[in-house]
Design a protein that fits this description.
Number of strands: 6
Mean pLDDT: 91
Largest sheet: 4 strands, parallel
CATH topology: Rossmann fold
CATH class: Alpha Beta
CATH architecture: 3-Layer(aba) Sandwich
Number of domains: 1
Low-confidence stretches: none
Oligomer: single chain
Radius of gyration: 14 Å
Shape: globular
Strand content: 15-25%
Number of helices: 4
Order of helices and strands: EHEEEHEHEH
Strand order of the largest sheet: 2-5-1-6
């Protein structure tokens, strides 16, 4: 059976690291903010576009039957995984949800501590 991993957690919790261990097909909203030559350039006003980009890439991978697929996003609110669950059902993927906890890795995108604290306060178990 085809598998989709939805990996959620705060910045620095190891989402990307685990995703890369589980699958060669890793998708993250943060990938939208990487540009050729200049690296990572986050723009809060484009976060909706970033998530649409991630979903589109996952849908494309599912159209080609790639498996396993890993999506590593914060998913602070559970409803944020809904689109991926719907895609999985449409394409016959079994979903495994993994929640990362702690801050065992370096926060590679330099998310400010107050932003992480706000995410932690809004976290939906």
């Amino acid at each position: 059976m085809k598998r989709l991993y939805l990996i959620r957690g705060l910045p620095g919790s190891g989402k990307s690291t685990l995703a890369a261990e589980l699958s060669p097909n890793v998708f993250e909203a943060d990938q939208f903010f990487y540009t050729k030559g200049t690296g990572y350039e986050y723009d809060k006003s484009l976060i909706g576009d970033a998530h649409a980009y991630c979903k589109k890439n996952v849908q494309h991978a599912m159209n080609y039957g790639m498996s396993p697929i890993a999506v590593a996003n914060t998913f602070v609110k559970r409803w944020e995984m809904k689109n991926y669950r719907e895609l999985a059902a449409l394409h016959g993927y079994r979903v495994t949800e993994i929640t990362m906890s702690g801050t065992i890795y370096k926060n590679i995108h330099d998310v400010p501590g107050e932003v992480i604290d706000r995410m932690r306060e809004n976290w939906e178990a």
